Amino acid sequence: VARYFKRRPVMVAQRAAQLAAEMAGFGVPLLGDLWTGRLQANEHKRAEQLRGVIERLGPAYVKVAQAMSTRVDLLSPEYYMQIQLLQDRVPSFPCEQAKEAMLQAFGRPVDAVFSQLSSKPVAAASLGQVYRGRLKPEFGGREVAVKVQRPDVLQQVCLDLYLMRQAAEAISALPEVKTDWASLIDNWAVRFLHEMDYTREAANARLFRQQMADAGVSGVVTADVIDEFSTDVVLTTQWMDGERSRQ
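Predicted structure:
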């Protein structure tokens, strides 16, 4: 990753400038609130602004925010509620691009695979979005969930991870800093990139099901993976109704 982006300094500089502009756009008003004593009065407004900044910066920063959203002790209620919205209410990408990804993955038109497919995604997250559909009778006729990865997301994520690691190296070089932040970024990046491989996700789902069966655990249900219509960037599984664990 480092070698790739070292050969593309213009791309790196453009992204760094965007990050700086977004951070300044949020940080300057926040400092103004602190200076004028309106930090609490404007907290809801600033929390909404921060969510917008994170959404515009893309998947890597959404993932960081999602990790923070599990730590209610680190966030005020206003910021916690806004970041919670990033779990599955991230703005979607155009459906035409999603259908093109399905076409490339399936090797055939979408209409040749599904008898029904939702016109809009039923959920959108940092790495992809999900459609609800029904396979044609010749493919089993099952109701399915189709998760499609965002276009060009791999390059964007890798660029952001590269910049995060550069910043982590600079911070770790400070004499008063004892934590190896670069290593923490590396470990997180590996897990993040694995999450982007839907083939790995499908294998993990099958492994989990087998482990539950071997352990004699009943009542835990996992969705069947439809291998014929699954690749590293499109994952088709049995549709299952359920509720969020936090509900």
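Summary: The CA atoms of residues 201 and 207 lie 10 Å apart.
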